[in-house]
């Protein structure tokens, strides 16, 4: 399923192909992401989800085709792109306070010499308020819960006021309440500021109320579309090249795979995959 895109997409992949270590991760990938769109990237381990984010960060050259972000070739350190890397829980001994972590996201383009300025302090305070972290912003980050830490990391990534926010598995190790908190925060940002959000995740059900479209990558194949378009028995069976059943049970999506790939992909038991929430 190819994406029709918009006139001037914020993210624009054209015929993008990426080969790494003798494997084709994805080929002829086409996608136009509009301002304020919320996109989730799904797929099994090793399908190339993080690598797709790396291409947007200017950290990974394409093997063929092209990609632009805000009309430009992606480049390292661009203030157009905010990035929340895969979660690492901060150590309890780390002396850094929440507000210090957020302030680290202030970049030279916007603030001049970051640490010295009042404008950084004010912007940090405003961002902490915006993500609802005021009550714990002065605590050492290592003492905070995973969900609280994640909020601060997103605040840090938003400090450069990026046009695009990339998040790599921001829901991992969060309970349902904190997952919803993070998703609501991302949703609010894309609605209020028009930031396009692109999120890698293994969690399907929590994201369904929020995302506009899904990119599903499997073994060199890809599909892009709304959750209803992509999460179907036919589409996933095509992508996996093996029988996969997509069931809807009490509003939840459950993917049951016949081969080994779907089970591996979503860290579930041997019989049933995905449907984690
Ligand atoms: N620099 C590299 N050289 C060769 N192979 C690489 C390189 N970087 C990544 N790979 C391989 O590319 C594949 C895709 O990796 P990537 O991290 O994008 O997968 P992913 O879909 O994010 O997986 P996961 O769900 O496990 O995080 C993996 O098989 C990985 O080993």
TrEMBL record:
It comes from the Bacteria. Keywords: ATP-binding, Nucleotide-binding, Transport. Residues 11-244 form the ABC transporter domain. InterPro entries: AAA+_ATPase, ABC_transporter-like_ATP-bd, ABC_transporter-like_CS, Metal_Ion_Import_ABC, P-loop_NTPase. It holds the Pfam family ABC_tran. Gene3D superfamilies: P-loop containing nucleotide triphosphate hydrolases. Belongs to the ABC transporter superfamily. This is ABC transporter ATP-binding protein. It comes from Flexivirga endophytica.
């Amino acid at each position: 399923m190819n994406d029709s895109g918009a006139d001037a997409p914020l993210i624009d992949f054209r015929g993008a192909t990426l080969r790494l270590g003798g494997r084709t991760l994805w080929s002829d990938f086409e996608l136009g992401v509009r301002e304020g769109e919320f996109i989730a990237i799904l797929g099994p381990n090793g399908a190339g989800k993080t690598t797709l984010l790396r291409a947007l960060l200017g950290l990974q050259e394409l093997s063929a085709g092209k990609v632009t972000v805000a009309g430009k070739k992606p480049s390292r350190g661009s203030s157009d792109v905010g990035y929340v890397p895969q979660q690492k829980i901060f150590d309890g001994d780390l002396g850094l306070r929440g507000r210090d972590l957020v302030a680290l996201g202030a970049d030279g383009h916007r603030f001049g010499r970051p640490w010295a300025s009042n404008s950084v302090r004010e912007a940090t305070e405003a961002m902490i308020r915006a993500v609802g972290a005021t009550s714990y912003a002065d605590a050492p980050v290592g003492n905070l819960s995973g969900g609280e830490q994640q909020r601060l990391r997103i605040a840090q990534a938003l400090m450069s006021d990026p046009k695009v926010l990339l998040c790599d598995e921001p829901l991992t190790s969060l309970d349902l309440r904190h997952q919803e908190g993070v998703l609501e925060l991302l949703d609010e940002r894309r609605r209020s500021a028009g930031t396009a959000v692109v999120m890698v995740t293994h969690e399907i059900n929590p994201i369904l109320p929020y995302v506009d479209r899904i990119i599903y990558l499997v073994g060199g194949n890809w599909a892009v579309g709304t959750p209803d378009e992509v999460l179907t028995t036919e589409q996933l069976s095509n992508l996996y090249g093996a029988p996969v059943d997509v069931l809807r049970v009490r509003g939840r999506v459950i993917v049951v795979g016949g081969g080994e790939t779907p089970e591996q992909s979503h860290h579930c038991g041997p019989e049933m995959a995905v449907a984690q929430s």
